[in-house]
Structure formats: structure tokens, C-alpha cells
Amino acid sequence: LHDVAVANGGTSVEDPPGPRESTMGVMHLCYFLDPDGHKICGIHRES
After folding, report:
1. What is the pLDDT of residues 7-44, one digit of tens each?
2. CA–CA separation, 47 and 37 (whole Å)
3. Is residue 25 classed exposed, middle or buried when 0-12, 13-18 and 19+ CB atoms within 10 A define those classes?
């Protein structure tokens, strides 16, 4: 998601995409700004 967003005009923000430890287990997160400046978070968590 992150790579596609950046390749299509988005801007990477915050930490690089990747795994994060949380109370809900390991989640893979990415943050980016869309071309209009909206901050978007992509989350994937194993079920």
C-alpha cells in the first residue's frame, strides 16, 4: 500500500512502513499523505 501510494503522488510520513508491537500483537503499519494532504494509515494484523 505504502509503495503504491508514494509511486502515485503520496508522501511518506512518520516511521518507515513495517511491523509494530502493540497490546493487540504485531501489526504492520504505514503512514502517508495523499496528494490532497490527507494523512492515511494502512494497518495489517494477522488474524
Report:
1. 999 999 999 999 999 998 999 999 999 999 999 999 99
2. 31
3. exposed
Q: Which helix (H) or strand (E) holds 2?
A: helix 2-7
- pTM, whole model, 2 decimals? 0.82
Domain positions in the chain are 2-45
Task: Transcribe 17-33 into DSSP letters.
Answer: SEEEEETTEEEEEEEEE
- Return the CA Rg of the chain: 11
44 to 4, 30, 36: CA distances (angstroms) = 16, 9, 24
